[in-house]
Amino acid sequence: MTSLEISREIAPLSAYQRVISTDIDVLHDAVEPYAVGHDLQALQPGVPLDGQVNALSVGAINLVWVRYGGGGVIVDTPPTEGHFAMCAPMAPMNVEYRVTKSRDTTGGGHILSHDEPMRMTPPPMMGCLVIATSTGRLADHLAGHLGREHTAPLRFYGSGEPGLVPSSIVERTWRHVCDVLDHATATGGLHPLAERSLEESLLTAILLGLPHTATASLAEPEDRPSHHLAGVIRDWIEAHHHRPIGVTDIAAAAGIGVRQLQAICQDEWGLTPTRLLRGVRLDHARAALLAAPSGPRTISDVAEAAGYVHMSRFAAHYRQRFGETPSQTLSRTTPASSA
User: Fold this and answer.
1) Nearest-5° Cα angle at 76, 112 to 208
2) How confident is the model over 250-289, as pLDDT tens digits?
3) What is the C-alpha separation between 81 and 84, in angstroms, rounded?
4) Which residues lie below 8 Å from residue 106, measured CB to CB, with a gap of 6+?
5) In whole angstroms, what is the distance from residue 339 CA to residue 337 CA?
6) SS (H, E, C) 103-159
7) Residue 122 in contact with residue 75, Cβ under 8 Å?
8) What percent of the chain is modeled with pLDDT above 90?
9) What is the reported pTM?
10) Nearest Cα to Cα of residue 89 among 129, 62, 51
């Protein structure tokens, strides 16, 4: 079996193929909406590419597997700033930090720098998986575990620092998620509850297995029991998020006062009731955008169905949570053209 046949056999997310192309620009345009901003140049300009891109979103997490083939490519990335992105190459990959000029060869997950441009040469025939999300979504997941917001900016370290548990948890988790996703197509697709579970398992693995500014906080012992009304509150919000509800409505449905509701939400999720409601609405809106055909009123219809009245507020909240605009999410519902 040739290396190309091996790479196609083990390719993650094979059920979510976006593009097969020899054109470097087509491959770039298929990858970028699911990853982070980057530039491509051919590593061997005279050798044609033979590329493939498989990609989809799981909640607020984007997963994209790309094999460029041929002579390979050089990938230049700017600082990721408010985004998180990790490359998991299927074979050793050379990495260069463009400011410090330090170099590394990685065979596992490599975190893209928040504040420094990078240059990478992914393995041409074996490919690379990219996991990307907003640091805001990771911070929300972190707050849910801590029971409070982590005040310092959430930033991940590229190397040299340990995570809370061995970093292998990240690879084991993404491989499991990809396997579940690939098999889900044979059973008619993924149930929304299963999708949320997969998203949260990836977020948890990233926070536990990779070093970041909140690792020490995660190491603190958890000694608070879950409040008996937490599930009631969350389930009621899920069922009624599309209606014009507010904090007083949530409190009344749970049979408690507003102050007690605020205390429960802070203890359970590290969020105010308003932010909890907002997160539920935005998650439903994102799922709807990813499943919707493009149209002149698609975004406004989705926003209204999720319980938003003001489009400007919806757009601002959406970008803050997911690191992209609603229209950018919607643009990914139409696969790129194959060459």
Assistant:
1) 10
2) 999 999 999 999 999 988 888 899 999 999 999 899 888 8
3) 8
4) 89, 92, 93, 95
5) 7
6) EEEECCCEECCCCCCEEEECCCCCCEEEEEEEHHHHHHHHHHHHCCCCCCCCCECCC
7) yes
8) 55
9) 0.73
10) 129
